[in-house]
Amino acid sequence: MTMSELERFASWVEDLIRQRGYDIDSPRGGGKSRLADDAGVHRAAITRLLQGQSMPDLETTRRLAHVLRVPVRDMLIRSGRLSEEDLPLPDLGGGAPGAAAPHRRLTLEEAAAGLGVPPDQWDMFIRVAAQFLPPADADSARSQAEYGSAAAVKGAGKG
Protein backbone atom coordinates (compact mmCIF):
# COMPACT_ATOMS: atom_id res chain seq x y z
CA MET A 1 0.00 0.00 0.00
CA THR A 2 1.34 3.37 -0.96
CA MET A 3 1.25 6.34 1.35
CA SER A 4 -1.32 8.09 -0.81
CA GLU A 5 -3.66 5.05 -0.60
CA LEU A 6 -3.32 5.04 3.18
CA GLU A 7 -3.92 8.80 3.30
CA ARG A 8 -7.05 8.48 1.11
CA PHE A 9 -8.39 5.71 3.33
CA ALA A 10 -7.59 7.69 6.48
CA SER A 11 -9.35 10.74 5.05
CA TRP A 12 -12.44 8.67 4.17
CA VAL A 13 -12.55 7.15 7.66
CA GLU A 14 -12.00 10.58 9.24
CA ASP A 15 -15.03 11.92 7.33
CA LEU A 16 -17.13 8.95 8.50
CA ILE A 17 -16.04 9.51 12.09
CA ARG A 18 -17.14 13.14 11.96
CA GLN A 19 -20.43 12.22 10.25
CA ARG A 20 -21.17 9.81 13.10
CA GLY A 21 -20.74 12.61 15.64
CA TYR A 22 -17.32 11.90 17.09
CA ASP A 23 -15.49 15.13 17.97
CA ILE A 24 -11.97 14.40 16.80
CA ASP A 25 -11.00 17.99 16.10
CA SER A 26 -10.87 19.66 19.50
CA PRO A 27 -8.10 18.68 21.89
CA ARG A 28 -10.58 17.98 24.68
CA GLY A 29 -13.39 16.60 22.54
CA GLY A 30 -12.54 13.05 23.51
CA GLY A 31 -13.84 11.75 20.20
CA LYS A 32 -10.91 9.44 19.54
CA SER A 33 -11.21 7.92 22.99
CA ARG A 34 -14.97 7.55 22.70
CA LEU A 35 -14.65 5.93 19.27
CA ALA A 36 -11.98 3.57 20.58
CA ASP A 37 -14.20 2.64 23.53
CA ASP A 38 -17.28 2.16 21.33
CA ALA A 39 -15.31 -0.05 18.93
CA GLY A 40 -13.42 -1.89 21.67
CA VAL A 41 -10.03 -1.02 20.20
CA HIS A 42 -6.96 0.82 21.42
CA ARG A 43 -7.00 4.59 21.05
CA ALA A 44 -3.51 4.34 19.54
CA ALA A 45 -4.93 2.37 16.58
CA ILE A 46 -7.37 5.22 15.90
CA THR A 47 -4.62 7.83 16.20
CA ARG A 48 -2.23 5.93 13.90
CA LEU A 49 -4.97 5.53 11.29
CA LEU A 50 -6.04 9.19 11.39
CA GLN A 51 -2.42 10.32 11.14
CA GLY A 52 -1.91 8.06 8.13
CA GLN A 53 0.78 6.06 9.91
CA SER A 54 -0.67 2.57 9.66
CA MET A 55 -3.61 0.53 8.49
CA PRO A 56 -5.70 -1.10 11.24
CA ASP A 57 -5.60 -4.88 11.46
CA LEU A 58 -8.57 -6.89 10.24
CA GLU A 59 -10.32 -7.14 13.62
CA THR A 60 -9.95 -3.40 14.23
CA THR A 61 -11.27 -2.75 10.72
CA ARG A 62 -14.28 -4.98 11.42
CA ARG A 63 -15.01 -3.24 14.72
CA LEU A 64 -14.66 0.23 13.21
CA ALA A 65 -16.96 -0.72 10.33
CA HIS A 66 -19.60 -1.83 12.84
CA VAL A 67 -19.39 1.37 14.92
CA LEU A 68 -19.25 3.62 11.86
CA ARG A 69 -22.19 1.73 10.32
CA VAL A 70 -20.53 0.80 7.04
CA PRO A 71 -20.21 -2.68 5.56
CA VAL A 72 -16.92 -4.42 6.29
CA ARG A 73 -16.76 -5.04 2.54
CA ASP A 74 -16.62 -1.27 1.93
CA MET A 75 -13.91 -0.82 4.55
CA LEU A 76 -11.77 -3.57 3.02
CA ILE A 77 -12.17 -2.24 -0.51
CA ARG A 78 -11.56 1.39 0.50
CA SER A 79 -8.48 0.31 2.45
CA GLY A 80 -7.02 -1.23 -0.70
CA ARG A 81 -6.64 -4.62 0.98
CA LEU A 82 -9.16 -6.22 -1.35
CA SER A 83 -10.80 -5.23 -4.59
CA GLU A 84 -14.42 -5.33 -5.71
CA GLU A 85 -13.43 -8.35 -7.78
CA ASP A 86 -12.17 -10.05 -4.61
CA LEU A 87 -15.48 -9.34 -2.86
CA PRO A 88 -18.15 -9.41 -5.57
CA LEU A 89 -21.74 -8.71 -4.71
CA PRO A 90 -24.03 -11.63 -5.52
CA ASP A 91 -25.88 -11.56 -8.82
CA LEU A 92 -29.47 -11.61 -7.67
CA GLY A 93 -30.84 -11.62 -11.19
CA GLY A 94 -34.24 -10.21 -11.93
CA GLY A 95 -33.05 -7.88 -14.67
CA ALA A 96 -32.77 -8.03 -18.41
CA PRO A 97 -29.64 -9.75 -19.76
CA GLY A 98 -26.78 -7.29 -19.76
CA ALA A 99 -28.70 -4.80 -17.59
CA ALA A 100 -27.44 -3.83 -14.18
CA ALA A 101 -29.13 -5.93 -11.54
CA PRO A 102 -31.23 -4.00 -9.04
CA HIS A 103 -29.39 -3.65 -5.74
CA ARG A 104 -30.88 -5.96 -3.18
CA ARG A 105 -29.02 -7.29 -0.22
CA LEU A 106 -28.83 -11.00 0.25
CA THR A 107 -30.66 -12.09 3.40
CA LEU A 108 -28.70 -14.08 5.92
CA GLU A 109 -31.03 -17.01 5.27
CA GLU A 110 -30.16 -16.83 1.56
CA ALA A 111 -26.48 -16.63 2.45
CA ALA A 112 -26.78 -19.66 4.75
CA ALA A 113 -28.55 -21.66 2.05
CA GLY A 114 -26.10 -20.57 -0.62
CA LEU A 115 -23.15 -21.52 1.54
CA GLY A 116 -24.62 -24.91 2.35
CA VAL A 117 -25.09 -24.29 6.08
CA PRO A 118 -27.29 -27.09 7.45
CA PRO A 119 -30.78 -25.72 8.27
CA ASP A 120 -30.50 -26.76 11.92
CA GLN A 121 -27.47 -24.41 12.22
CA TRP A 122 -29.02 -21.38 10.51
CA ASP A 123 -29.91 -19.63 13.78
CA MET A 124 -26.28 -19.78 14.92
CA PHE A 125 -25.06 -18.69 11.48
CA ILE A 126 -27.42 -15.69 11.48
CA ARG A 127 -26.42 -14.62 15.01
CA VAL A 128 -22.71 -14.77 14.13
CA ALA A 129 -23.06 -13.19 10.68
CA ALA A 130 -25.25 -10.38 12.08
CA GLN A 131 -22.26 -9.20 14.10
CA PHE A 132 -20.63 -8.11 10.84
CA LEU A 133 -23.58 -6.02 9.67
CA PRO A 134 -24.29 -2.37 10.46
CA PRO A 135 -26.49 -2.09 13.59
CA ALA A 136 -29.87 -1.59 11.85
CA ASP A 137 -29.27 -4.56 9.53
CA ALA A 138 -28.02 -6.68 12.44
CA ASP A 139 -31.19 -5.96 14.46
CA SER A 140 -33.29 -7.04 11.49
CA ALA A 141 -31.21 -10.20 11.06
CA ARG A 142 -31.54 -11.03 14.77
CA SER A 143 -35.32 -10.62 14.52
CA GLN A 144 -35.32 -12.97 11.53
CA ALA A 145 -33.26 -15.50 13.51
CA GLU A 146 -35.63 -15.28 16.48
CA TYR A 147 -38.62 -15.70 14.19
CA GLY A 148 -36.88 -18.65 12.53
CA SER A 149 -36.27 -20.28 15.93
CA ALA A 150 -39.89 -19.84 16.94
CA ALA A 151 -41.10 -21.22 13.60
CA ALA A 152 -38.75 -24.19 13.87
CA VAL A 153 -39.98 -24.99 17.39
CA LYS A 154 -43.58 -24.60 16.30
CA GLY A 155 -42.94 -26.78 13.23
CA ALA A 156 -41.22 -29.46 15.32
CA GLY A 157 -44.42 -30.05 17.28
CA LYS A 158 -46.35 -30.88 14.08
CA GLY A 159 -45.07 -34.32 13.48
UniProtKB/TrEMBL annotation:
InterPro entries named among the record's database cross-references: Cro/C1-type_HTH, Lambda_DNA-bd_dom_sf
Segments of skewed composition (Low complexity): 148-159
Region described as Disordered: 137-159
Ranges for domain HTH cro/C1-type: 35-75
Gene3D superfamilies in alphabetical order: lambda repressor-like DNA-binding domains
Domain of life (superkingdom): Bacteria
Family annotation (Pfam families): HTH_3
Protein name according to UniProt: Transcriptional regulator
Native species: Kitasatospora albolonga
